Amino acid sequence: MSTDFAALSRLLDERWTCRAFAPTPVPRVEIERLLALAQRTPSWCNTQPWEVIVTSGEETGRLREALGAYVMSQPQASDFEFPTAFPGAYGDRRRECGFQLYDSLGIEKSDADGRFRQMLRNFEFFDAPHVALITVEADLGPYALLDTGIYVSSLLLGAQALGLAAAPQAALAGYADFFRAHFGLPENRRVAVGMSLGYAAVEEPVNGFRTTRADLADVVAWHGSWA
Question: Which residue of 5, 125, 128, 207 has the fewest C-beta atoms within 10 A of its own C-beta?
Fold first, then answer.
């Protein structure tokens, strides 16, 4: 096994979604290193359709307060349709992840209020000092969104390599109109995903569980002759 493969394997094995952050801000130079790394992400015809807004300090606080109020008074309005159902194995995996999350926090399945409060933590950015809002060019179609997803993966692995914690959040994209107004986004930008970013509060129980992955037999079909 090459050292490069081993390093990538370790990053993928150890990466996780942080749901409780320490208040310590990340130096801008470190976030710039992360963004410069992710900018090397491949894209269709090298279009690089992503753009990023990153907050820090008082701006993160203002964003948290404004979004919290908006979420409690306005319906979701995402730029991309959210799934209405998760059939078969997709639903099983989603439920398993949810059960692990609630178990780590001691929230019973019957505790609807507790689950709701935890859902709202998304809009508090899990107390992260920084938020990255990733947008995509509207006119380039679904493949631009695919490219942007690859970019998000680069951000997540880069953050892991730099000792940072991150939480990619579709929940934030569910309020695209809010972000469009708050940041004055132009009409050609669509909100793809948000990401809370900082250092992990490692002592918090919610950061202690890890999700599983499907076996290759569940996702790979082999055709032809193989050595």
Answer: 5
Residue 105, in any domain of the structure: yes
Q: What is the pLDDT of residue 1?
A: 66
- CATH code of the domain covering residue 157: 3.40.109.10
pTM for the model stands at 0.95
Tokens for 188, please give them: 């050609």
Maximum Cα–Cα distance for the chain, whole Å?
A: 60
Specify the amino acid at residue 27.
Answer: P
Q: For residues 58-70, b (16+ Cβ closer than 10 Å) or e, as one string?
A: eebeebbeebeeb
Query: Any idea which residue has 């309020």 for tokens?
Result: 175
User: What proportion of the chain, given as a percentage, has pLDDT over 70?
Assistant: 100
Q: Count structural domains, the chain.
A: 1
Distance CA 185, CA 134 (A): 11
pLDDT digits (tens, 9 = 90+) for 109-144: 899 999 999 999 999 999 999 999 999 999 999 999
In a domain, 158, yes or no: yes
Kindly give the pairing relationship between strand 189-198 and strand 165-169: antiparallel
Q: Determine the Cα–Cα distance for residues 212 and 13; give it in Å rounded to an integer.
A: 10
Any domain includes 155: yes
pLDDT tens digits, one per residue of 3-22: 999 999 999 999 999 999 99
Residues with Cβ < 8 Å from 81, sequence gap 6 or more? none
Nearest C-alpha neighbor of 67 from the set 167, 179, 184, 189:
179
Q: 94 in a domain, yes or no?
A: yes
A 10 A CB-CB count for 103 gives 13
